[in-house]
Amino acid sequence: MSILHTISKSQDSKLLQNCLSVIGEDDAILFIEDGTYHCSVASSLSSIANGIKLYGLREDMIARAILAHSDDRVDTVDSARFVQLCCDYDKVVSWF
Amino acid sequence: MTEKTNEKQANLTRITFISRSAPYGQNRASLCLDMALAAAVFEQEVSYVFMGDGVYQLLKGQDGSAIGSKTLGNALETLALYGIENVYADASCLEERGLQEEDLLPGLQCVDGEALSKLLETSDTVFNL
User: Where are the domains of chain A?
Assistant: First the structure.
């Protein structure tokens, strides 16, 4: 069973740490809304195991001027792909 | 002359606003800005400080239209129009987030905690949002 975790708040929240404490090795993380700030912070991303796929919602990253600062590890996706990802994984767990 | 100057200073309230929220997730950032602009209209001595996630408001190249919002970065440019020239960012908050001064909108000063501490000390009122 694989899970897509969505994270919608920045590093100031402890959402990423909470998520990482329960994440499975086949899971993925999608950063949305203020969660997209994680994509630009190396110390945030280095705490995530290498096998975990990372996605960032492009619209939210454009609005926040984060796209140019985003790490190469993060795959940016649009809303349509967001929907597709929700279907590709068995479950979606929202961290908000 | 001296009396007049003193009188003027007596009517001035030094108000400092601390904005600690990222620009789009909720409306705190724009509410804080609205308060500061309102204070400036009443010709108070306003200082504006960006701390914590608030420094994300300062990133160049924001485009709120991507998510159907107003672009808050543009709104910040109105600070100068309203005569608010004392605009500060907490340097340690920028560093934590890997942001350089060249990533930011112009017209602000990056300062350390000690300078901000002095600013709060000399302010009559501090709004922290």
Answer: 3-95
Give the span between the Cα atoms of A4 and A30, in whole angstroms.
7
In a domain, B6, yes or no: no
Distance from the Cα of B30 to chain A's closest Cα (Å) equals 14
Task: Write out pLDDT tens, residues A34-72.
Answer: 999 999 999 999 999 999 999 999 999 999 999 999 999
Q: CB distance from A79 to chain B under 8 Å?
A: no
Displacement of CA B27 from its chain's centroid (Å): 15
- Classify B90 as helix, strand or coil: strand
β pairing state of B14-19 and B45-50: parallel
Q: Please, is A65 exposed, middle or buried when counting C-beta atoms within 10 Å of its C-beta (0-12, 13-18, 19+)?
A: buried
Tell me, what CATH number does B109's domain have?
Answer: 3.40.1260.10
A3-95 has which fold? Hypothetical Protein Ychn; Chain: A, (3.40.1260)
Euclidean distance between CA atoms B97 and A37, whole angstroms: 9
pLDDT for position B74: 87
Tens of pLDDT, residue by residue over B6-49, are 555 557 899 999 999 999 999 999 999 999 999 999 989 999 99
Domain that holds residue B107: 15-128
- What band does B76 get if pLDDT is binned at 50, 70 and 90? confident
By C-alpha distance, the chain B residue nearest A78 is B66
For residue A59, list chain B residues with Cβ-Cβ distance below 8 A.
66-67
Strand A74-77 to A53-57 pairing: parallel
